[in-house]
Design goal:
Length: about 190
């Protein structure tokens, strides 16, 4: 499957590290990139749209797609909450002559890298510290004390995998992190 016209950009990070903000910035800078829409079993949030933000699937439908080997990667990210990248989504973007930009969790990113070792660029967005990450997550106002602690513990675990990725970008200053990621992608796309 890997070839020059089937490059993939992977942005991964613990929750709260700034991966979505950086992804949005990159999509504005590179018209040849397209957001790879992930599948998810969770309910849509207030302003999320099916087929734009995620493909929202019922649990049984997601599990059927797993059995049919329709995912490049999938994970149960939180108890009962599945996320994954459909093979059909990558094929759709490549047919449009775009390079998929994946904004996915750490384990999923490792799986995609393993399947596309010659055509993927992976960037791990790292928070300046676990303490700062906890502060960012708490400031969202969407977490209970228990869910915040769960996310912080998961983030610490995920940060232990940062060395598996092509590049690590520390997001201490969002603009600087965006510009660093932009340079890495520009160099990769020229190859």
């Amino acid at each position: 499957m890997a070839s020059q016209n089937k490059k993939i950009i992977i942005i991964t990070a613990p929750s709260g590290a700034g991966k979505t903000s950086i992804t949005r910035y990159l999509l504005e800078r590179f018209p040849q990139l397209a957001f790879s829409i992930s599948a998810a079993t969770r309910a849509p949030r207030a302003n999320e749209v099916d087929g734009k933000d995620y493909y929202f699937l019922k649990l049984k439908d997601f599990q059927e797609k797993i059995r049919n080997n329709e995912f490049v990667e999938w994970e149960m990210v939180y108890e009962g909450k599945y996320y994954g990248t459909l093979k059909s989504e990558l094929d759709r973007l490549w047919k449009e002559k775009k390079f998929p930009l994946l904004d996915i969790d750490v384990k999923g990113a490792i799986h995609v890298q393993q399947q596309f070792p010659q055509s993927a660029l992976s960037i791990f967005i790292e928070p300046p510290s676990v303490r700062e990450l906890a502060r960012r997550l708490a400031s969202r106002g969407t977490e209970t004390e228990e869910s915040l602690q769960t996310r912080v513990n998961k983030a610490e675990y995920e940060m232990s995998f940062s060395h598996h990725f092509d590049h690590i970008v520390v997001n201490d200053d969002l603009q600087e992190a965006c510009e660093e990621a932009e340079k890495l992608i520009a160099a990769f796309l020229k190859k």
